[in-house]
Automatic annotation (TrEMBL):
Highest taxon of source: Bacteria
Protein name: AraC family transcriptional regulator
Keyword annotations of the record: DNA-binding, Transcription, Transcription regulation
HTH araC/xylS-type domain boundaries: 6-104
SUPFAM superfamilies hit by this protein: Homeodomain-like
Length: 266
């Protein structure tokens, strides 16, 4: 069945290196930009502009790891004309500067993966379990590493409010969660693929179908804390990529200074 939002997503993905606009995508599916943006956001969870940015930064990540071309060349190759704008927005989406991201394979090769949870300044807790759909085994194996995080929108960009790395699908607990409305997302990668840890190819992901509300109220001893279940499965090829750099956030290597501030101000 024809879906204008999905067709627009495919169009944006095919032309991400060109100076295209929402108007171009709207013309492609014979919608007005306003109506396409509403339909696109309802279908994919993010706006066409946010989707195009995520695709461009995913392409930039691949280029940065593929060779030693100057950052300015990568910037131009993914449709940006200003290195400063490209770098600032790369940090917002990925959590590291382009040069910092390029160093990650060496950093990861020198360290050992381990289960870890990274919390924020809050007192909230979000818990649950993650399982793997049988269709995802071909992409990530039977015991993939699983990243779980809470984000301020239904897309894995920038620094999560809290996150965890699991050595395999199973229970998770996110602590230090600030009060707010968060989207619970998960992604899995083969444990023996360092580049896959950074690029998340063949995405096997999961998301809770509604936002998670976290308050600063003390837990009610008479009511059990809610538990959320996520099922990892291959994402459609038109889905928004996981643009955030997962291992640096989960392994305690940190993100560049200002990444969280930039994310909050974007």
């Amino acid at each position: 069945m024809h879906d204008p939002a999905i067709e627009a997503a495919r169009f944006l993905r095919a032309h991400l290196t060109e100076p295209i606009t929402v108007q171009d995508a709207a013309d492609h599916v014979a919608y007005s930009p306003f109506h396409l943006s509403r339909l696109f956001t309802r279908t994919l969870g993010i706006s066409p502009v946010q989707y195009l940015a995520a695709q461009r930064f995913q392409r930039a990540k691949a280029l940065l790891l593929a060779d030693d071309d100057p950052v300015v060349d990568v910037c131009m190759a993914v449709g940006f004309s200003s290195v400063g704008t490209f770098t600032r927005r790369f940090v917002e989406h990925v959590g590291l500067s382009p040069s910092g991201f390029r160093r990650m394979p060496d950093v990861l090769a020198a360290g050992a993966f381990r289960a870890i949870a990274v919390g924020g300044p809050g007192t909230g807790r979000v818990q649950g379990t993650v399982s793997l759909d049988a269709s995802g085994v071909a992409y990530v194996g039977t015991r993939p590493h699983v990243y779980v995080g809470l984000f301020d929108r239904p897309a894995a960009r920038g620094a999560p409010s809290a996150g965890a790395l699991l050595m395999e699908p199973g229970p998770f607990s996110l602590v230090g969660v600030p009060p707010g409305v968060w989207w619970l997302l998960a992604a899995s990668v083969p444990p023996d693929d360092p580049l896959g840890q950074l690029l998340v190819p063949g995405m096997v992901t999961a998301s809770h179908d509604a936002p998670v509300l976290v308050t600063d109220l003390p837990p009610d001893p008479d009511r059990p804390a809610p538990a959320y279940h996520l099922t990892l499965a291959p994402a459609p090829e038109w889905s928004a990529p996981v643009s955030v750099a997962l291992p640096p956030l989960a392994h305690g290597y940190g993100v560049d200074a200002g990444a969280r501030a930039a994310e909050r101000s974007s």
